[in-house]
Write a structure and sequence with these properties.
A: seven-stranded mixed sheet, six-stranded mixed barrel, elongated, B: alpha/beta, Rossmann fold, binds adenosine-5'-diphosphate, binds magnesium ion
Chain lengths: 797, 245
């Protein structure tokens, strides 16, 4: 009851906190709905096959590479065995290869591969006009395109543009060629479809397949979604999880500062309750009750907001590329309920310290004339603050020796811990920092500087509460911005610099460049492919003699890879060689994308080069092993490439390329960054407004005294603005410190991982914008608090 | 120990701070407060009045000496025990801010019962408020009451808990003389009609005259005891005590 009554009286001052929690719960609802909705979707082209067999996928699901295929012969043999099972009508190995329909010089539709006509049965498609493809230059296209049988069309394949004749049209999206051509072009097989009239026992299929692959039936078949979709979904998941975690952390932070503040303001009331016989436990329960009610109120407002906007956000994620086109939202009741519960937990977590503190208020303080509580640093605060610094240090050390995605995560954790530490220790640091900052004005004879300095010293904690959200906003905005720039700087610049390129030819509306485009572009390039060691993928790239000079040779002879023998000569990067134990002259059995077995012979070890691939082969060899391999980009020594029209390629200047978001991954990362900055800084700015208003309201008494002692209205406002600006600058400085520390750890980690110095990039623009926003909002809300607080209004009148 | 003695202090000493800068607030105070008595404690500012009250209520712990309330020796209680003692056996009224701002007058009166999770008949709250002349203000918040009215609500609260002893620290210190009169009459009424034991710290001779007995403190010691006196005599004795000290 006391909790409720107290809230009724104080709701205005807790409005900011409630709004924050409402937004956090809305965010959690949206993320929860999106996360639970995101699942693999069975591609239409397999919809009619009750059972599908695929090779064993790689163990790391986050590698996002296709599984090691069967060779065409292996697939045929397996298909023949499967045909013997009772109930099985037909078994179809799918031979699929890269092909895109080109009309008027531009790629058309979303279909980016062709398969043999027999595979059309897996999708349940049939010919609607004309006939099935028989000759090597015949193709069946989607009837929806409005192309009449008998027309000539251009298909862009890995070789380049090729002319086909439309033999017929089918009632579904896709390109189908004669089975013989598909078998020749596709190389390996990654899906075998089983068609049957009656239900076929999957166990029998599994018996036949044995350890050669896995059988997928029913909803399991969704695992055959395109690898690119799985990857997109995974990226989307990372975004949503990061946003949820950040939202929760920031909310805890904001609730903590709001309640710490409120507890200090209610000191006398708490002392009175203690005096009248309230046990510390009762006080704690009361605060918990209050904060749970605030959390519930925020949740009840936030969950509907989340439900209402989830579809919008979902569509946006699809448009941006964080979710595949097949994505739809499934509304589940438990998600908003869980979000509300999480919101309440978050607020409870935020109020732990405040409740603990409130319970320790001395009943004697109710009897003292002035119950001022602004003891800057309690021992507990020192201990937890320094503990947080230690935790941040541990994460920082972990980051310097971590690899891959963990690196960024550790840097983020370090920043979270440092932010916590910063806000805990702020009352100790602030007066000092403010003195330093105002030192140049110390001889000023006016009252402003003196008052600002004294105020931050005597009301260190209140000042610290205002500085904390500024610290948070700046730290996270700068960290996230710097995180991405630091980690991509090495690649983006490295790529172009290594090739010394003046211009770069990149794909335009196609997944990669065909051989014809590469030839027309005349420059340096690699042809990426995958080889499989067992069932594990290994990134490989084909280079021609022209590219040899881009690599620094550690040992062996790089030119040897261009002289193929019975064993395929390769070069290997030194770090992969170290990791896998490969040596000069050692041989290794692998499977290529055509599904056949080969033996690699290590002819050279390279220490440096412009490709992320671990293994280098001759370019022509790659083309033989992987008929669908595409080139990512071609580096030219001069701009002005010609003859690219109709090849799905365009030219960018080197500088434009280095900065461009032409690369799909770069673009996603960039959008991700913007989302994270927006979420963390958005919450932070909300908190800035909240705490500044609370602090200003608490100072009304002080200000009245100032006015009574003869300060003019302008002087009071000027003093407040100066004070706010000082706090923003100090808070921003601390935030920058936090971000720089985390970024330094990240840069060291990246350097260790890449074996090259990665410079730390501090995003100065982001810093400037965030500090500017904080400053504007803080000054405005200080003014607003004074304008709208009625006592204060009178005082300024 | 006679059953009529409600609060007994024996040789209570209290020093604040560490030796070079130590302040002796109470230098061996012994006093008895019998049931149903109304005692005023007077003395110059800094003479130790508040400290005496704090020690007698178990809010502060005496360095030496004993304090008993009823049969309970405060030295034998831990923090929780002292909290329960305050809740169940001690009432407080002080200069200002006696009420929880978020609660109505009636809710403030019922607060100790609520903290103890004891059932309370709403009629009892009304009766207590009526007794201090505030029956019609039950639903008002402290911000809507005058200082004197707030003090009377605090008295009504004490009335309901039936504490063994009611401590008042300058209850009229922030009031004008008219409001003071009302509050003092209400206090007096508590003693006369309900046999409430009251210990009141004040430096107002008029207020002290409402009491049965006046203890005068100087430098942490009881230097005088006046009974049945009017304000003028009390003021005169007070001046003498201060000069002597
Ligand atoms: N918490 C404290 N810390 C230090 N000195 C105190 C404290 N409380 C009281 N004193 C000192 O003890 C003496 C008695 O104080 P107090 O009991 O408040 O006097 P009174 O109420 O008669 O004015 C004063 O000198 C005062 O300064
Ligand atoms: Mg006093």
């Amino acid at each position: 009851m006391i909790a409720l009554a107290s809230l009724r009286q104080r709701w205005r001052s807790l409005l900011g906190t409630t709004v924050t929690l409402a937004i956090a719960v809305a965010l959690l609802t949206i993320c929860g709905l999106l996360l639970t909705s995101a699942g693999p979707v069975l591609p239409d082209r397999y919809a009619a096959a009750p059972a599908l067999v695929r090779p064993i996928p790689p163990t790391d699901p986050e590698a996002f590479t296709e599984p090691r295929p069967w060779s065409a012969d292996q697939a045929d043999a397996l298909a023949l065995q499967l045909t013997g099972i009772t109930g099985v009508d037909r078994v179809v190995p799918e031979h699929r290869f890269y092909a895109q329909l080109i009309r008027y010089g531009k790629p058309v539709g979303e279909v980016a591969d062709a398969s043999g006509w027999s595979a059309a049965a897996l999708g349940g498609y049939s010919v609607t006009a004309g006939r099935i493809p028989e000759k090597a230059d015949e193709v069946v296209v989607d009837s929806g395109l409005g192309i009449a049988p008998g027309s000539a069309v251009t298909l862009l394949t890995a070789r380049g543009p090729e002319t086909f004749t439309v033999s017929g049209t089918a009632d579904g999206p896709g390109l189908w060629v004669g089975d013989a051509l598909a078998r020749e072009r596709a190389g390996g097989v990654r899906v075998i479809g089983v068609l049957g009239t009656r239900s076929v026992d999957p166990a029998k299929i599994a018996d036949v397949v044995g350890s050669d692959g896995e059988v997928l039936t029913g909803s399991q078949r969704a695992a055959l979604e395109p690898v690119a979709d799985a990857r997109t979904r995974w990226i989307g998941m990372q975004v949503l999880l990061a946003v949820s975690a950040l939202g929760a952390f920031v909310s805890v932070f904001i609730v903590a500062s709001a309640f710490a503040f409120a507890t200090r303001r209610r000191h006398r009331e708490l002392a009175l309750l203690r005096l009248l016989g309230a046990a510390p436990r009762q006080i704690r329960r009361m605060i918990h009750g209050e904060v749970l009610l605030v959390g519930l109120a925020g949740g009840l407002a936030g969950a509907p907001l989340g439900l209402a906007t989830a579809a919008l956000v979902g569509r946006w994620l699809v448009r941006t590329g964080f979710e595949p086109r097949t994505f739809v939202i499934a509304y589940q009741l438990w998600v908003p309920i869980a979000a509300i519960a999480a919101g309440m937990l978050v607020s409870l977590a935020g109020a732990i310290a405040a409740a603990w503190r409130a319970a320790r208020v001395s009943p004697l303080d109710a009897l003292r004339e002035s119950a001022l509580d602004d003891r800057p640093m309690s021992r507990m605060r020192w201990v937890t603050g320094l503990l947080a610094v230690a935790v941040a240090g541990l994460f920082g050390v972990a980051a310097t020796s971590a690899s891959g995605a963990d690196l960024g995560t550790y840097a983020l954790y370090a920043a979270m811990a440092l932010t916590t530490a910063g806000s805990l220790l702020a009352p100790a640091i602030l007066p000092f920092a403010v003195r330093l900052l105002t030192a140049p004005f110390a001889r000023d004879r006016g009252a402003t500087v003196l008052l600002v300095r004294q105020h931050t010293r005597t009301a260190a904690r209140r000042t610290a509460s205002t500085a904390a959200p500024i610290l948070l906003s700046v730290a996270f905005a700068v960290l996230v911005g710097g995180l991405v720039q630091t980690s991509t700087a090495s690649y983006g610049i490295g790529r172009v610099a290594a090739a010394g390129a003046a211009a770069v030819v990149v794909p335009d509306g196609v997944p990669g460049l065909s051989d014809a485009a590469v030839t027309a572009a005349t420059g340096l390039s690699t042809l990426p492919t995958t080889v499989y060691s067992g069932s594990e993928p290994l990134a490989a790239a084909g280079i021609s003699a022209a590219e040899d000079s881009l690599f620094t040779i550690g040992s062996g002879d790089l030119t040897a890879i261009h002289r193929p023998g019975p064993r395929i000569p390769i070069a290997v990067t030194n770090w992969y060689a170290d990791q896998a134990g490969w040596q000069l002259g050692s041989t290794h059995p692998v499977t290529a994308v055509d599904g056949r077995a080969y033996t690699l012979l290590v002819a050279a070890v390279v220490t440096k080069g412009p490709t992320p691939a671990s293994v280098l082969l001759d370019r022509d060899t790659v083309r033989k092993l992987d008929s669908s391999a595409l080139t990512a980009s071609v580096y030219r020594t001069a701009s002005g490439a010609s003859g690219l029209t109709g090849l799905g390629a365009r030219e960018l200047s080197g500088a434009a390329y280095a900065q461009s978001t032409a690369d799909e991954d770069d673009r996603l990362v960039w959008v991700f960054t913007v989302i994270l900055i927006a979420v963390s800084a958005g919450f932070g700015l909300l908190a800035v407004v909240n705490t500044t208003m609370m602090a200003s309201a608490a100072r009304a008494g002080d200000l009245r005294l100032l006015r009574l002692s003869g300060a003019t209205r302008t002087q009071v406002l000027g003093m407040l603005s100066a004070e706010t600006a000082t706090v923003v600058v100090v808070g921003g400085g601390l935030g920058l410190g936090v971000a720089v520390a985390a970024l330094a750890a990240l840069a060291r980690g990246l350097s260790a991982q890449l074996g090259a110095t990665v410079p730390m990039v501090v995003p100065w623009t982001t810093l400037g914008v965030t500090v500017g926003l904080c400053l504007a909002l803080a000054v405005l809300s200080t003014g607003a608090a004074l304008m709208f607080g009625d006592r204060a209004r009178r005082l300024l009148a | 120990m006679t059953s009529t003695v409600t609060v007994r202090l024996t040789a209570v000493r209290k020093t604040y701070g560490t030796p070079p800068a130590a302040v002796t607030a109470l230098a061996g105070v012994s006093a008895e407060f019998t049931a149903g008595s109304f005692t005023a404690v007077m003395g110059a500012s800094g003479s130790g009045k508040s400290t005496l009250l704090h020690c007698a209520a178990g809010l502060d712990i005496a360095d030496s000496g004993t304090v008993t309330i009823g049969d309970t020796d405060l030295a034998g209680l831990n923090e929780h025990g002292r909290t329960l003692l305050r809740r169940d056996r001690i009432g407080f009224v002080f200069q200002a801010y006696n009420l929880v701002g978020a609660l109505t007058a009636a809710q403030n009166v019922a607060l100790p019962h609520r903290l103890a999770r004891r059932a309370l008949d709403p009629a009892e709250v009304t009766r207590a408020l009526a007794e201090v002349g505030l029956a019609d203000r039950a639903g008002h918040y402290p911000a809507q009451l005058s200082g004197g009215e707030q003090q009377r609500v605090a008295l009504a609260r004490a009335l309901i808990t039936r504490p063994a002893v009611l401590y008042a620290d300058e209850p009229t210190g922030a009031l004008d003389s008219a409001s003071s009169g009302v509050v003092l009459r209400a206090l007096r009424g508590l003693v006369d009609t309900h046999g409430q034991t009251v210990v009141m710290v004040t430096h107002d001779a008029v207020a002290a005259a409402a009491a049965d007995r006046v203890l005068v403190l100087a430098d942490g010691q009881i230097v005088d005891e006046i009974t049945g006196a009017d304000p003028a005599r009390i003021a005169a004795r007070l001046v003498r005590a201060e000069v002597r000290a």
